[in-house]
């Protein structure tokens, strides 16, 4: 019997290794908790009880025969997957009714790698449909309340994944981040979540949202777990031509070696009007903690930051809409009807904005122009990384906001991404790590941004900070 579910992956591995519990007991304990509490959180769309139990039994047999296989870093570790990521034989809806009965015949590359490392899929997580959103309220399977306060949003678009890890329904979850969809829900739910550099992890089998920005990465309770998961997930994939050849560092072995004389920049544009006062105070306290680690901190500037949200919301809908246009006459009614029912409002809005900004006459004024400003945003980062190694910012301007408070105002919802989208447009790695809680008990996230492919330094600083307050030990009371 498991009295207390493990909080981090190594604790689960140790429990299995030392036979404190069997893998089957672990899987069943998570299912029991899901059944008891997920009626409130709605974090799962599909639960895979049968196949997970079969996998767990197989793991137990292998442990009994040959002991715990140390070469499999996730052996017997239960996890969950955002529903916009394909999983072989498991329904993958992307939270849109148009895919309600879609069962992919293949695994996304990252999922295949996690399974090869011994991970066991418990089910698929609710999200904003096709990743479109910042609150998980654009799901055709209902919203996901925040485990710390069920009147608040869990964040989006990977809100179900964040809520599931935070509520201890699984050891970790896999999300997708185009413009903040891993970092923002991680921040709102008190977790660590990494958006890797564009091209670091394969996107094969991840339902595309905006192909020049999409990334796939882990949500876990600690930065240490994120490092371990990245080690399993990252690397070149022949099936995704945008993945890079560069060797994947031994993130978990290197994570505790914070580089000496690390220089960190605070981009002043992230500490202005948009940032709520209490969140600012919490982030400033985190910066003090980081200074006390011997890190050199200075103010820097990313002057084109104010254009990031407008540029993002032109480029992303344009890439979104490209590929869903089909105006074949006799099929028109079928397409019109199925999309009217099968796509939520936000998906339709983005397809319309994107189609408009790509149409002749408007292309130069909107899409081409936005791409030019995107280059300026990237150049801001190139320049700043000549003088500092990493950047520190709040992940979000406020903690989790009330359910329903922004659903009627798409612009207000888009502005929830204000601190997340710049790193996305520039293809950079960015981590959100828990920086503690506000007076109302809601988590606040600290964002660490690094130069492209410098996940290791980002994780090293995140880990060093995480050790100071160990916020991850605090759990929501559910
Ligand atoms: N909130 C952002 C959007 O709606 C982020 C989406 C994402 O990263 N998938 O586009």
UniProtKB/TrEMBL annotation:
UniProt subunit comment: Heterotrimer of A, B and C subunits.
MF annotations from Gene Ontology: ATP binding; glutaminyl-tRNA synthase (glutamine-hydrolyzing) activity; transferase activity
Keyword check for Ligase: yes
HAMAP family per UniProt: GatA
Record-level GO cellular component terms: glutamyl-tRNA(Gln) amidotransferase complex
Domain Amidase residue range list: 25-459
Similarity comment text for this entry: Belongs to the amidase family. GatA subfamily.
Active site: 82, 157, 181
Species assigned in the record: Candidatus Magasanikbacteria bacterium GW2011_GWC2_45_8
Name by which UniProt lists this protein: Glutamyl-tRNA(Gln) amidotransferase subunit A
Record-listed E.C. numbers: 6.3.5.7
Class in the EC hierarchy, top level: ligase
